[in-house]
Amino acid sequence: MLRTPTGGAGNGTAAARERSMSIGAVLGRLRDEFPEVTISKIRFLEAEGLVEPSRTPSGYRKFSAQDVERLALVLRMQRDHYLPLKVIREQLDALERGEQIQLPAQGAHREIVDGTWEPQCERPTAARIGRAALLAAADVSEEELAEWESFGLLAPDEDGAYDSEAATVARLVADLGRFGLEPRHLRAMKASAERDAGLVEQIVAPLRRHRNPQTRAHAEATARELVTLSVRLHAALVQTALGVRLH
Hints:
The protein is mainly α. The chain has helices at 13-19, 23-31, 39-47, 65-81, 85-96, 131-138, 142-150, 166-177, 183-208, 213-242, and strands spanning 54-55, 61-62, 101-102, 110-113, 116-119, 128-129, 162-163. It folds into 3 domains: 13-119, Multidrug-efflux Transporter Regulator, Chain: A, Domain 2, CATH 1.10.1660.10; 127-178; 185-247, no CATH class. Strand 3 (101-102) and strand 4 form a beta hairpin. Helix 3 (39-47) runs parallel beside helix 9, helix 6 packs across helix 8 and helix 9 runs antiparallel to helix 10 (213-242). The termini are far apart.
């Protein structure tokens, strides 16, 4: 059960220091439930004002247990209810004032009462794909999928479902496998993709914070365009490195 930070007095300075965590430790805590979360994502949410970790004199972030709970709540609101960050911020502010809130239904909903996340019915399945459907769409075996998951190339959520891009990823991993590229070879590609995602988040973040609603609405379109350009650049750089000419 998650509760938002109460802001009350703790059990003393020493106890607070003992409970504090580095951003890497926070990532480890969150990844059990949110396999796709990255350090850049945590930093982005901090830049958006959704969490405010303390800082050491040398400038290192230190997260409390309440900070981690708050991050998990934000990530659930995004994943389960598709809420924009502005709305999430408003919901969190309401919880801190002690108000009861009702999250909008997206085929299913959860309610937060007195800062506690209470499931009301099953999570929405929009834009998700089940394991059996993924195996059929990618035309791969259970053993192959399990191996890819062990290398972090694909990851189901807590209900065993996958996002809408999982079938594309699975097919591409299978195609590369026919050329002898094993999952362990592809981990570098996954790491590169996560770094690219962090760069996109940094560029889009100011647009999402802009006062103009049209500018904020343009953020997602900008993110998609940046993804397309980064993919094209990656392909061009690989081709240049190999000295390959397609035309």
